[in-house]
Amino acid sequence: MKVRPIKKTGMREKVQEAILNAIKKGGLKPGDPLPGELELAARFQVSRGVVREAMSHLRLIGLVDSRKSRGAVLGQPDLFGALRLALDPAFLPPRTARELFELRLVVEMGMVELLFLRKNKIDFDKLDKFVEYWEVAKNEDERIQADINFHTVLYQATENKTLAAFQQLLRTFFHQILILEWNSDRKVGSICHRQFIDILKKGSCEELRSAMYEHLSIYFQRLTTNDVS
């Protein structure tokens, strides 16, 4: 891996960028060894501490991995790794919370096509089970969990691992939104889970899209009133 010295401004960011550029130019693959901190510090003409900080950032997102007896190697990036700790409702400013909420709506509306195309992959028994759990739930927490689990089955049915990871990443956030919903005086969308299952089994893609929109209508209404956080 060939690297060149860099200017001593914005140290950590520039070292990180230089490492990434060298990896790309060198055509390295996951598992290939990376130079040690001392070697990188000498080549970049910066301190070892700056290199260590840059490598730590890359390690956080999975681009750098540490192996016993091998040192640092190129890893496989974890798309959501760096976000897991930050995406806690307690740490999110209102604007970010609102934008994540909107993103969830866009994703669930957009995945209708995949659900329709891959409906034979859907575990309808699980969907029915979570609807039953919802109907006999003794408190709000049980209903919220059943609701989240219902949508989890839908995400998994798309066979898109990134979509499923996205939903898992934001589960805590969605849980907080649903708590707000159950504690409000508003009514949920007119399409319940059982109706949605029936449309998913027997309806057209357009009917499914309309059903999803109707099911999420309470949240779209909240967007018009800024009442989502």
Ordered list of secondary-structure elements with their pairings:
Elements: H1 11-26, H2 37-44, H3 48-60, E1 64-67, E2 71-74, H4 94-110, H5 112-117, H6 124-136, H7 140-157, H8 161-169, H9 171-182, H10 193-202, H11 205-215, H12 217-225
Antiparallel strand pairs: 1-2
Helix pairs in contact: 1-3, 2-3, 6-7, 7-9, 10-11
List its salient traits:
single chain, 229 residues, mainly alpha, Arc Repressor Mutant, subunit A, Four Helix Bundle (Hemerythrin (Met), subunit A), 2 domains, 12 helices, 2 strands, 62% helix, 3% strand, elongated
* Contiguous helical run count: 12
SSE succession: HHHEEHHHHHHHHH
* Content of β-strand: under 5%
Largest sheet: 2 strands, antiparallel
CATH architect. name of the largest domain: Up-down Bundle
Main sheet strand line-up = 1-2
CATH class of the largest domain: Mainly Alpha
User: From the helix content, strand content and strand pairing, which structural class follows?
Assistant: mainly alpha
Helix proportion: 55-70%
Rg over C-alpha atoms, rounded to the nearest angstrom: 23 Å
Describe the structure.
With 229 residues, the chain is mainly alpha-helical. It is 62% helix and 3% strand. The protein has helices at residues 11-26, 37-44, 48-60, 94-110, 112-117, 124-136, 140-157, 161-169, 171-182, 193-202, 205-215, 217-225; strands at 64-67, 71-74. Strands 1-2 form a two-stranded antiparallel ribbon. Helix 2 (37-44) packs across helix 3 and helix 10 (193-202) packs antiparallel against helix 11. The protein starts with 10 loop residues before the first helix and ends with a helix.
